[in-house]
C-alpha cells in the first residue's frame, strides 16, 4: 500500500524528561521561536505530520516546530509501573527548560495534549505566549461518590494489567484507522499505522503505546481545579473543535454548558472546523493550519 509522502521531513532526537527518555521530532529552523506540539492519548508526535505539511510557508518559516512522544507513547520510554497525569506537566516543564529556557513558547495540543497545555499555561503563565487546543477542553466533571468504585477498578487493574490485542498485520491497523476515521485518505492511514504500531516477535502487529495507559486513573477529575488553572492563564487562547461535535458528546454538554466552561478562560477564541471530527488535524489539516495562522498573527499583533 502506498504511504503518505512527507513534504517536510522532521529531525528525530531524544531528550531526558522528568525521569524517562522522550523522543522528539523537530521541523524548521531551530533558532526560531518555538511551537511545542503535544499529542493526544494513544497517539504520537508523528501524528502532527499532516498539519506541519499543511502550514503556509511563511508561517512554517516563522517558527521552529517541536513535537514529543509523551512518556509511554510512540518511541519514548515507558514507566516501570503506572502513569501519573502530572508527570506530563513535569515532562513539558523539563522540555521548555532545555529548549527555550529564556523565551515563552506557543503550545499546541490535541485532546489529552491540549488538556496538559491548558493546565500548564495556568501553572507557568510566564512560559506560554499563545495557546492552541484542539478538542482538549478538559473532562466531564466527576462525582465524589464515584471514588470507591474508581479505586476498586484501579486496584483490580493492578492485579490484571491491561494488554493490547495484536492485529494480524499492519494492513489490519490501516483498515481499523480508516473505519474509525472515514475522512482519512488511504496513504494517510498507512503512514499513521506505520508510526503508531510495530511488528511483534510473533509476526503480528501491535500498537506502540504502553497498554498500561489503559489502566483506570485512581484520581477523579475535578473540573474546578482545571478551571482555577485556566483562570490563571495570561496567554491568548484558541480552542478548535470539529463540526461533528465529538467533544460536546464527550463532555456531555450542550452549547450553554460549554459556554459556561469557556468563561473560565481569559482571552479565549473558539473556532469550529468544518467537516471534521475529533482528529481534526488529520482530517482537515489545511483548515486547521489556516486557523492557526490567523490566530498566531492576530494575537501577537501582526
Automatic annotation (TrEMBL):
| Name used for this protein in its record | Alpha/beta hydrolase
Q: Does the keyword Hydrolase apply?
A: yes
- List the GO terms this entry assigns under cellular component, sorted alphabetically: membrane
Domain called AB hydrolase-1: residue spans: 33-285
Gene3D superfamilies in UniProt: alpha/beta hydrolase
GO molecular function list: hydrolase activity
A Pfam family annotated for this chain is Abhydrolase_1
Give the InterPro entries listed for this entry. AB_hydrolase_1, AB_hydrolase_fold, AB_hydrolase_sf, Epox_hydrolase-like
Q: Where are the transmembrane segments?
A: none
Q: Which SUPFAM superfamilies match?
A: alpha/beta-Hydrolases
Keywords on this record? Hydrolase
Amino acid at each position: 500500500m502506498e504511504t503518505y509522502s512527507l513534504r517536510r521531513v522532521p529531525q528525530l532526537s531524544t531528550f531526558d524528561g522528568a525521569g524517562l527518555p522522550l523522543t522528539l521530532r523537530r521541523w524548521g529552523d531551530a533558532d526560531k521561536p518555538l511551537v511545542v506540539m503535544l499529542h493526544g492519548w494513544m497517539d504520537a508526535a508523528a501524528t502532527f505530520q499532516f498539519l506541519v505539511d499543511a502550514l503556509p510557508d511563511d508561517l512554517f518559516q516563522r517558527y521552529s516546530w517541536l513535537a514529543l512522544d509523551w512518556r509511554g507513547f510512540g518511541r519514548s520510554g515507558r514507566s516501570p509501573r503506572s502513569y501519573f497525569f502530572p508527570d506530563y506537566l513535569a515532562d513539558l516543564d523539563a522540555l521548555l527548560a532545555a529548549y527555550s529556557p529564556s523565551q515563552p513558547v506557543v503550545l499546541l495540543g490535541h485532546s489529552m495534549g491540549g488538556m496538559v497545555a491548558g493546565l500548564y499555561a495556568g501553572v507557568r503563565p510566564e512560559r506560554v505566549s499563545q495557546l492552541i487546543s484542539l478538542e482538549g477542553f478538559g473532562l466531564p466533571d466527576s462525582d465524589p461518590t464515584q471514588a470507591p468504585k474508581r479505586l476498586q477498578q484501579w486496584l483490580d487493574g493492578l492485579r490484571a494489567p491491561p494488554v493490547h490485542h495484536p492485529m494480524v498485520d499492519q494492513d489490519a491497523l490501516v483498515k481499523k484507522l480508516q473505519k474509525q476515521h472515514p475522512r482519512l485518505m488511504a496513504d494517510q492511514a498507512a503512514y499513521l499505522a506505520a508510526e503508531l504500531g510495530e511488528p511483534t516477535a510473533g509476526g503480528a502487529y501491535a500498537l506502540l503505546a504502553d497498554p498500561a495507559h489503559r489502566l483506570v486513573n485512581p484520581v477523579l477529575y475535578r473540573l474546578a481545579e482545571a478551571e482555577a488553572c485556566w483562570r490563571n492563564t495570561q496567554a491568548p487562547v484558541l480552542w478548535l473543535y470539529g463540526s461533528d461535535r465529538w467533544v460536546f458528546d464527550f463532555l456531555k454538554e450542550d452549547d450553554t454548558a460549554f459556554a459556561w466552561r469557556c468563561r473560565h478562560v481569559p482571552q479565549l477564541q473558539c473556532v469550529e472546523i468544518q467537516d471534521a471530527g475529533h482528529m481534526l488535524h488529520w482530517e482537515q489539516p489545511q483548515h486547521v493550519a489556516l486557523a492557526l495562522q490567523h490566530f498566531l498573527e492576530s494575537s501577537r499583533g501582526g
